[in-house]
Amino acid sequence: MARIVAGIATSHVPAIGVAMDKGTSSNPYWQPLFEGYKPAQKWLAELAPDVAIIVYNDHASAFSLALIPTFLIGVAAKFPIADEGFGPRPVPAVIGHPELAWHLAESLILDEFDMTIANEMPVDHGLTVPLTVTCGAPAAWPFPVIPLCVNVVQYPPPTGARCYKLGQAIRRAIDAFDEDLRVVIYGTGGMSHQLQGERAGLINRQFDTAFLDGLTKDPVALTKITHTEYMREAGSEGVEMVMWHVMRGALDDQVTEVYRHYHVPASNTAAGLILLENRSPA
Question: Which of 10, 63, 108, 253 has the highest CB neighbour count under 10 A?
């Protein structure tokens, strides 16, 4: 049967993708951030998963305020790269895994999660930057990807607790899939940052570090963080971290923290990354 072997949580700062695409990742500003990604790329290449589920949020590329799905799963065989106003990123198209995606859609809906199903959609930096961070710049991405989109743009977003339960439901669905697949799941977005207003540029290292610690040691306690607390402590865009709960809910109760990387600044954002492995046999 299929099984989830590891989880990845990472920021998806668009400027990280731009630095990679324009060849500036080794300049003095970006080099410390990208140097910290190298161990993650080596680990993932050695893990060699068969498929990845990437939990991310769309940035008005596939959807607008005319259509706001709380949870959406992409079931297509291929997802083109979105044009976010300056042309699509020069990265490979994302290849899907329709068989597993449709199994997930059916299982999650019957498990009482009201998933929107996308038969076609472009994917933006919310999904492609995490691939760049963990895979580098290959000619083709090393595994198929199932996009799982979460609304964290228009109030009300789902709670951390609901996202954690979604992760648990994903785990049940994966465990029930007959094909022998090794799956990794990404939670993306964050960490603390605010892009507008008097607190633009907010960084809260203490909150971010405690969140990273909690993912390993006490993820259930993290699910009790309210929307107001995310806003107060992590800025208006810090609520993106609820997507990390989906990843964590899909893993074992006890996990091994393989690696973490935290760097400030990445543009006007705190960039974080953590790698977690299930302790059960892979």
Answer: 10
pLDDT band at 279 (very low <50, low <70, confident <90, very high): confident
Q: Is the dihedral of CA 220, 39, 97, 16 positive or negative?
A: positive
What proportion of the chain, given as a percentage, has pLDDT over 90? 96
Catalytic entry in 12, 97, 103, 125: 125
Q: What pLDDT does residue 281 have? A: 55
155 contacts 102 by C-beta, under 8 angstroms: no
Model pLDDT, residue 112: 97
User: Following CA atoms 70, 75, 78, 84 in sequence, which dihedral angle do they give, to the nearest 10 degrees?
Assistant: -10
Overall number of domains in the chain: 1
Residue 263 lies inside a defined structural domain of this protein:
no
Q: What is the CATH number for 63?
A: 3.40.830.10
17 in any annotated domain: yes
- Host domain of residue 227: 3-256
Q: Is 263 a catalytic residue?
A: no
Contact 127, 147 (CB under 8 A): yes
Q: Kindly state whether residue 279 falls inside one of the protein's structural domains.
A: no
Residue 143 has pLDDT above 60, yes or no: yes
Q: Which of 97, 103, 193, 245 is catalytic?
A: 193
CA atoms of 257 and 277, how far apart (whole Å): 7
What mean pLDDT is reported for the chain?
Answer: 96
| Residue 261 annotated in active site | no
| Contact status, residue 273 vs residue 131, Cβ threshold 8 Å | no
Is position 102 within any domain?
Answer: yes
DSSP state of 239: G
Q: What is the mean pLDDT of residues 113-137?
A: 98
